[in-house]
Design brief:
With 224 residues, the protein is α/β, with parallel strands linked by helices. It is 39% helix and 15% strand. This is 2-phospho-L-lactate guanylyltransferase.
């Protein structure tokens, strides 16, 4: 069944697209951990990211793009919709294809790409950043959120017809050079992606969602 489109009451009227590699192939830079441990953590990061996005005021829908069939059921249980990845070797093409599906299902929505490795994401910070995103998109601009290191990107949005993400090495500089407007500088949890064990240690100090807490043997506490 096709979901109804966002209504005028959905403000900001965003559909958040979360691309998720099969966890068995993700988080290769978590060196020192065996494959199963990396798989568990990658899955936990994605589940916590999606759970926070689903709970964010103004997010009309969350669309998870993944070829991992085991993740489909828990993602749907969180309230997300799931579609297969049609270009799994190219993240940017994956996102372009997903946004075409967003346009088909929810015309008029603002498509927002969100990285799946934000286990400490706070819904309030995402909501505040999305308000700025919608302002820029309504003005015809792309927008992006720079990661904690300053070189990468955790979030990218643009009018659907201009949606051209440039994730990869030095993506923040490439997004800025393309004319995208930087937003979310104060959204610490939205900038705190986890690529390696140092990143993981940093987000554990600030607090993580229940799936990552459980995977790390921590007690889950509300992120607020």
């Amino acid at each position: 069944m096709t979901s109804p489109p966002p209504t005028d009451a959905d403000t900001p009227r965003c559909v958040v697209v979360v691309p998720v590699k099969p966890p068995a192939h993700g988080k290769s830079r978590l060196v020192g951990l065996d494959d199963e441990r990396r798989r568990q953590l990658a899955e936990a990061f994605a589940l916590d990211t999606v759970q926070a996005a689903v709970a964010t005021p103004g997010v009309a829908r969350v669309l998870v793009v993944t070829d991992d069939f085991r993740l489909a059921a828990p993602m749907r249980a969180l309230g997300a919709e799931v579609m297969p990845d049609g270009a799994s070797e190219d993240l940017n093409e994956t996102l372009v294809q997903a946004v075409a599906e967003v346009v088909r299902r929810w015309p008029g929505a603002v498509p927002v790409a969100l990285c799946a490795d934000l286990p400490g994401l706070r819904s309030a910070e995402l909501a505040a950043a999305l308000e700025d995103v919608v302002t820029q998109v309504d003005a015809g601009h792309a927008a992006f959120v720079r990661d904690r290191t300053g070189t990468g990107t955790t979030t990218y949005a643009a009018p659907a017809a201009q949606f051209a993400p440039q994730f990869g090495m030095e993506s923040a500089a490439r997004h800025a050079a393309s004319g995208a407007v930087e937003v979310g500088a104060s959204a610490r949890s939205l900038r705190a992606d986890v690529d390696d064990l140092l990143d993981l240690g940093a987000v554990l100090v600030g607090g993580v969602g229940p799936h990552t807490a459980r995977a790390c043997g921590r007690r889950a506490t509300p992120l607020g």
